[in-house]
Amino acid sequence: MAWYAIRTVYLFGTKKDGTNVFEERIVAFEAASWDEAHIKADKKSRAYAAAHQGVKVHPEQVGYRQDGAALIDGYELWSELFESTQTLEEFYQNRYASLKYRPE
Questions:
Q1: Which of 70, 60, 65 is nearest to 24 (CA)?
Q2: pLDDT per position in the chain (104 positions), as tens?
Q3: What are phi and psi of 100, to 5 degrees?
Q4: What whole-number distance in Å separates Cα of residue 14 and Cα of residue 55?
Q5: Position 103 in a domain
């Protein structure tokens, strides 16, 4: 089976001054297909959010197929926190959708 790295964006919380804290997290999954990888990522992201009370998950996940040696299923590859007064949807649109490459 192949290995996939799936990115999920979370609204991790809100600071006292009203600034939102977002997390970008990439986790590796072993799967037979993209669909299976995204199903596993969705399940993992919901469990992660539940374990951190009040965390919201952005519904869109993106990923890529790994081309190297085997990894550990569910292993976190990347995590980064951000601060903003934007909503989860605004943050996602401004960080990802507005800058998305669209070939000619």
A1: 60
A2: 889 999 999 998 888 888 888 889 999 999 999 999 999 999 999 999 999 988 999 988 888 887 767 777 887 777 788 899 999 999 989 988 876 656 55
A3: -65, 135
A4: 10
A5: no
Q: 35 lies in which domain range?
A: 2-97
pTM: 0.71
72 occurs within a structural domain:
yes
- Asked, for residue 102, whether it belongs to a domain, the answer is no
Residue type, 72: I
Q: Which residues of 84-100 are buried (b: 16+ CB within 10 A; e: fewer)?
A: eebebeebbeeeeeeee
pLDDT for residue 100: 64
User: What's the structural domain count of the chain?
Assistant: 1
CA dist 47 and 31 (Å) reads 19
Residue 80 tokens read as: 């980064």
